Amino acid sequence: MNVRSHILDSAQELIYQNGFEATSISDITAAAKVGKGQLYHYFSSKKQIGLEVTDQLLADWQKELLENILKDSSQPQRNIGKMLDWICHAHEDQSIYYGCPVGNLIVELSTKDKDFQERLKSFIQDWQMALAANLSQLHPDWTKTKAQTEAKALIAQIQGALVLLKLSQNFNTLTELMDNLRQKCLNS
């Protein structure tokens, strides 16, 4: 791994655990074991690091969630089940539950910085569209508007479940809520 990538990986972990605002350049250099000069050789500012961390996170989610799980809407029950499993698996091995990395960025930065807001909003819209396509297949009687509204509600419920996981620090909270969502989505 090159130095630039190592700095970004270290920053991503710190931002996930502490938030963007609370993560300092000194924190990043210490975690990456690089000097400030080396960091500033690759990045002009903390904001640039934050935007690149956000872009990488969203690219990973785009690939893992939207392309690998939700893209082919011909098997909506399987896809929605796999999405809920993916969310659980992403958190099951953590010793401290920090919540959703995307949701945390939305809560912290969407009202403070347009550049972050636009990236995050675009991803959530893509997620909503992919989910709506699956829900439309699952419920052919739903209008397009109904499927989009239900997709938005499902994303909100997932984010709420991750907030409650963060609060409770109990993985059973997440599995219980994901099972509840699975029942509602797939058995209605």
UniProtKB/TrEMBL annotation:
GO terms for molecular function: DNA binding. InterPro entries: DNA-bd_HTH_TetR-type_CS, Homeodomain-like_sf, HTH_TetR, Tet_transcr_reg_TetR-rel_C_sf, YxaF_TetR_C. Gene3D superfamilies: Tetracycline Repressor, domain 2. Keywords: DNA-binding, Transcription, Transcription regulation. SUPFAM superfamilies: Homeodomain-like (SSF46689), Tetracyclin repressor-like, C-terminal domain (SSF48498). Pfam families: TetR_C_13_2, TetR_N. Residues 24-43 bind DNA. Residues 1-61 form the HTH tetR-type domain. This is Transcriptional regulator, TetR family. It comes from Streptococcus macacae NCTC 11558.
